Structures are given as C-alpha cells and as structure tokens.
Amino acid sequence: MKDAKLADHLEFLTSRRGQDEATVLAQALRRGIDVLYEDTLVEEFLLGRVSRETVLQELGSERLNEIEYQRDTLRREVGWGLKGA
Amino acid sequence: MPETISDTGPVLHLHEIASLDALGLLAPLVFPHGVWEELQHRRLDEATFRQAGLSFTVSTVNGDLLSDAETLRLQPADAEVFLLAREGRFESLVLTDDLALRRLLEERGAVVAGSVGILVRAYAAGRLSREGLERSIEALLEESTLHLSRAFRTYVRKLLIDLP
After folding, report:
1. Which residue of chain A comes nearest to B126, CA vs CA?
2. ipTM of the complex model
3. CA dist list (Å): B56 to B24, B48, B53, B90, B112
4. Choosing a second label site near B60 at 20 to 30 A (CA), which of A4, B18, B79, B152?
5. Which chain A positions have a beta carbon within 8 Å of B23's beta carbon?
6. Are B103 and B56 in contact (CB under 8 A)?
7. Which residue range is the domain that position A48 belongs to?
8. Between chains, do A81 and B152 touch, taking CB under 8 Å as contact?
9. pLDDT band, residue B16 (cuts 50/70/90)
C-alpha cells in the first residue's frame, strides 16, 4: 500500500473510531503480528520444521484441518500432473 | 477424449501468465454458462481460446441453483460447475482453484485439478521445459490473481524442487 493511502486510512480510522493515532497503530501492530505469526507458523509446519501438535495448540483443530486439506490438495495436484508423463 | 469441465479460476490464472496453451492437453473444455460469462467479463473471448488452440463449448446447467442444497455455500458460477459435474455423475475431470468447490467435488469422487497441476502436467507431457515450468509457476504465484498465502507459495516451490 502506498504511504499516502496508508495515511488516509489511518486518518479515517482515528476519526471514525474516535481513537488517537497511537492507539490505532498499537492495534494495527498487534493484528499485523498475529497475521504474520500465523502465516510463518503455517510455513514452518509445511516445511516440516514445526510440529503438528504446535499448530494444533496455536491455531486449533479447524484451522489445522484446513491447512492439511490445502497441503494435501497441492500434493495431489502435483501427483496428478505427473501422471501426464 | 472425455470432456473437461472448467471453473473460471484456472483458465483466468493461466491466461494471466500467458500459459493458456497448457490447457491444450485437457481440451475440449466445457464451461458452464456462468463461468463463460465470468471469463467474458474478464475479456477472455472466443478469439482468446482460438489463438491458444483450445476448443470449448458452453453448457447450460439444468436445475435451480438457489434451491439445490448441495450448492448453497458456493458462488453461482461454482455451483454451475458442481451441477454440471453431477449431471455427468462426477466422471469428468474438473478444473478449479476454489477449495470449497474442490472439497465438494472430491467428496463425491470427482478428479479435480487446478492451475498448479495443469502446469505440472504440461511439463510431464513435454510441453514445458523444467525452466519453463519454474518460470510459469513463479509467475502464477507472484503475478496472477491466484490467491495463495505466503506459506503455501513456499510449499508449492518446495514441491517443485522435489519434482523428478
């Protein structure tokens, strides 16, 4: 996102929520870290560097099922593709 | 050759990375009417497919999408894909990058493939070199509108490295 757009969004948030910039930025940082943490945790799991148990504990069984389904889907995709040899 | 029913996603994503011809192995394609409308809305027309050497037909789906319990959670065009596959007793290959649609189809025994699989098949069939496959997958992950999180983009790259 361009800086100008980011500034516009920040101004929109502070005015509509009635919160100061520091509060909004703290919330944004927390939410951003959560998103990045989950994506990195999933990446490490997919690469075999984080255990299934850890993902289960951190993200819950429903999210773990989604991740494993998508992972297995991609594996099947590649396996199906190779059958064209 | 059996028909291949296609959703909007794989066709659109492969078009975005100039790899529509990878679908040649799977043609003739069948687009439900709703999918064809979505493709046309994104400026893919008959000439686009002719230039890629792809034959296709557009099929009207029977049944009421809104009242079909099996398709309630799907977008209308995805629901048409499902119903068309169901009309053929799920024996046709179905192309989609939509996970919800894919799950529904696979639960009923259909064989489903998406953009990644189509490119790998083009490679396996000798239509794409290894370098071409890597370039196409990288473009698919970084330049197309296919949505994959960073984690799954990394995973696809890993799968690619492990390919024979």
Report:
1. A85
2. 0.89
3. 11, 11, 10, 19, 18
4. B18
5. none
6. no
7. 3-82
8. no
9. very high
